[in-house]
Amino acid sequence: MEWIVGITGASGAIYALRLLDVMKKSDYRPHLIVSAAGERVIQEESGLTLDEVSEGCQLYSVYDVGASIASGSFPARGMIVLPCSMHALAAMSLGLADNLLTRAADVTLKEGRKLIVVPRETPLHAIHLENMARLAKAGATIVPAMPAFYHEPKSIDDLVDFVVGKVLDQAGIEHALFQRWGY
Fold first, then answer.
1. Is 54 helix (H, G, I), strand (E, B) or coil?
2. What is the pLDDT of residues 93-121, one digit of tens each?
3. Which of 30, 71, 90, 145 makes a 20 to 30 Å CA pair with 104?
4. Euclidean distance between the first and final Cα of the chain, in Å?
């Protein structure tokens, strides 16, 4: 089954880059949507262009609301939004399908498929929390970008791998990105 990946303008492009890398090495071909702000953050935080990031992915314009992934008949297993800005999270929580990223998320929920949202913001205020709760009540899984330390990380890459591994766990995609507790 196919996975849709959305990248928004929240800081944390490193998470998205690692997720795409792991998915491509696992023979997944992500269907990628990047918001305009997401493209800017990727460039500012990694120095990479959208063409470089999307290599090995099926890239869609965020403005193409008529793309195949905007339909419930598209055979996606689910969608991952990583990192997820509070703007995108608010739109998804309200069902505002005004671009391809939010439309694909809306379709994912209406079809009863897995929507995994990785918010990357701190601190959070009540509106952020209410939007996350509304989205969770609609069926989304919220995986905040909060690394753990029980696996004794030695680098930033170890911290990134932990968060990406938790996302992959929710997606049912096997990985060995971190040592699990008790193993």
1. coil
2. 999 999 999 999 999 999 999 999 999 99
3. 145
4. 30
